[in-house]
Amino acid sequence: MLRDEFACGSDSLLLVLRATDPNDKTSTVWNAFVDEKKQRLFVQSPASFIKREPLLSLLDLGESLECQEVVVSVSKSTPDFEKLVRNYQYLGFQLAPLSKNVSDHALLVYSIDA
Questions:
Q1: In angstroms, rounded to a whole number, what is the distance separating the alpha carbons of residues 99 and 106?
Q2: Strands 69-75 and 40-44
Q3: Taking burial as the number of CB atoms within 10 A of a residue's CB, which of 13, 56, 60, 84 is the most buried?
Q4: At residue 51, does pLDDT exceed 60?
Q5: What is the pLDDT of residues 63-102, one digit of tens each?
Q6: How far, CA to CA in Å, does 16 sit from each of 19, 42, 86, 95, 104?
Q7: Amino acid 7: pLDDT
Q8: What is the mean pLDDT of residues 49-66?
Q9: How far apart are CA 112 and CA 19, in angstroms?
Q10: Is 88 strand, coil or helix?
């Protein structure tokens, strides 16, 4: 996974993450924000289907940044919304209770064991 970092505050870090599949040369790009104070990696999910390997790389990144949680935001207007949510849930993400109150996005949370 390729990681470009952009500092955006004393307790935070803005990231652009790119994972390239060597077999078919496709790339998956995420915009992410690390809240170092609360030890969370917030990620905006791409709009298309995501393979398992980039998702695992995302969790590895959260762990390497010493985050306690990875929070993914998935737009409900995404054509593959249900498929994306199932992919995240398959890897252990849980739908955040407050997602029901956010009309245009679902939030999925993965807790990283220390």
A1: 5
A2: parallel
A3: 84
A4: yes
A5: 888 889 999 988 888 888 888 888 889 889 999 876 555 6
A6: 10, 11, 24, 24, 22
A7: 45
A8: 79
A9: 21
A10: helix
